[in-house]
Design a protein that fits this description.
It contains eleven helices and no strands.
Length: 263
């Protein structure tokens, strides 16, 4: 299956598109997020089946999450770690297993809806972030949320991250904010920990099941790493609103393309 029909006739052009899309995806993740909207369809453009493309793309983009965890480790709240880590592990395993046991055709039909849903979530991330910051400006005494209710609230989000994941970070932040976590720095750090742990768990599941196409994975991983390095240098120069608009427009356009393919 090719994402761009005009590229389908030439393996060289498809390789070039995978490199470019992965590089842009790495830059988008460093700037605002949403890189999977490009790198996942590009992986499918190499002829990789949808489920294997999603698994391979998850592996390729994960190193960038690891560097984010290391950078934000000082803002991690240790009292939240037990619930976040346990739920991230269990939810992601269930989500990844559900993906691997989904039929290729069924998942292919879900792709435009997942992309559209992820785009909508990313689009409302601005108002949600402002709401979270508004809560943080109020003086509250932060307490440790109860373990079981927090786990139950986070589980479906972590399941979704293991299954597909676009927009999952926003959902993690929203759940934690509803449970009284106030500081933006803490919310961002815990989001990265939860998403990174969920994706790592999913990656291990994908690798053990043989769902990763390694030669495409390494190409995408290198390009995404270089793009992320470049994007980090631009992250403070570009308007967050402009970046969010670009990501949402990209996601909606690709979702529209997949809807058109399924007519």
């Amino acid at each position: 299956m090719a994402f761009l029909p005009e590229l389908s006739g030439s393996a060289h052009w498809r390789y070039a598109w995978l490199v470019v899309a992965s590089g842009i995806a790495g830059a988008m993740n460093a700037l605002a997020g949403g890189g999977s909207f490009l790198s996942f369809p590009a992986m499918m453009g190499m002829g990789v089946p949808p489920i294997q493309a999603n698994a391979t793309n998850t592996v390729a983009l994960w190193p960038g999450q690891l560097t984010s965890i290391l950078a934000l480790r000082k803002d991690v709240r240790r009292d939240l770690l037990p619930a976040v880590l346990v739920t991230s592990l269990l939810g992601a395993i269930c989500g990844a297993e559900a993906l691997l046991h989904t039929k290729q055709l069924t998942f292919e039909r879900q792709i435009p809806w997942l992309l559209l849903g992820g785009s909508v979530l990313f689009g409302i991330s601005g108002p949600v972030s402002r709401w979270i910051r508004g809560r943080a400006e109020q003086t509250h005494e932060e307490s440790t949320p109860p373990f079981l209710p927090l786990c139950l609230a986070l589980f479906p989000v972590c399941f979704y991250v293991g299954y597909f994941g676009a927009g999952g970070g926003l959902l993690i932040m929203t759940v934690l904010a509803l449970f009284g976590v106030e500081r933006m720095s803490t919310l961002n750090a815990m989001k990265v920990v939860s998403a990174g742990t969920s994706n790592l768990t999913a990656i291990i599941t994908f690798i053990l099941s043989g769902a990763v196409v390694w030669h495409y994975c390494f190409i995408s991983m290198i390009a995404a790493g270089l793009g992320g390095y470049a994007g980090a240098h631009w992250s403070r120069r570009l308007s967050p609103g402009v970046l969010r608009t670009i990501v949402v427009a990209t996601g909606c356009t690709i979702a529209a393309y997949f809807f058109w393919r399924q007519r």
